[in-house]
Amino acid sequence: MTKIGILDYGVGNLYSLKVALEKLDVQPITTSSLASTNEYDELILPGVGNFSRVTRSLGQTRDFLVNWVKDSNPLLGVCLGMQLFFERSEEGPGDGLALFSGKVRKLPSIMKIPHIGWNLLRTRRQSRLLEGLGNDSWVYFVHSFYPEPSDKQIVVAETNYGVDFASVITSETKSIYGTQFHPEKSGIAGERILKNFVAMCRN
To answer: Which architecture characterizes domain 3-202 according to CATH?
Structure first.
């Protein structure tokens, strides 16, 4: 059975993500520390917490994640988890994982913040993560910040909320995938995305 590690930052409820994965006949393993790459087939950085607080608490996990990616093991970042892929954030001080060049910005003040609810996912290019989805799908967001990648080629889908922002990023060569929305709360579209991620280690 496929084993998927879910990194627990110490805040937030990971139950809905765990349940969504169990429905896909995989074994989700919630852990606050990562020690061996042999324990998991894939990893997920979930979407809970504050950028500064999480970057301070990563400790040795930071090196583990960087080495995990160097070995091209599948990594999915959800919401804050995806934001951690970048170098820094307007949410506060702290160094991200710098897996990609770029920063995390705050949503425009003209909009109600946080951005909570369903919004449209507009596909910009093909990705294994989005296989089986139409060009326009509805997904569920809860966030106040969004990533601004320096390399626009990693952006595979965008969403508009006062500004067009990257809502899905991927690097197929590095096996890094990220969603600004919560797939575990995004109905059929979210289930399809999680299925696609699981399939990447099974193929």
So the answer is: 3-Layer(aba) Sandwich (3.40)
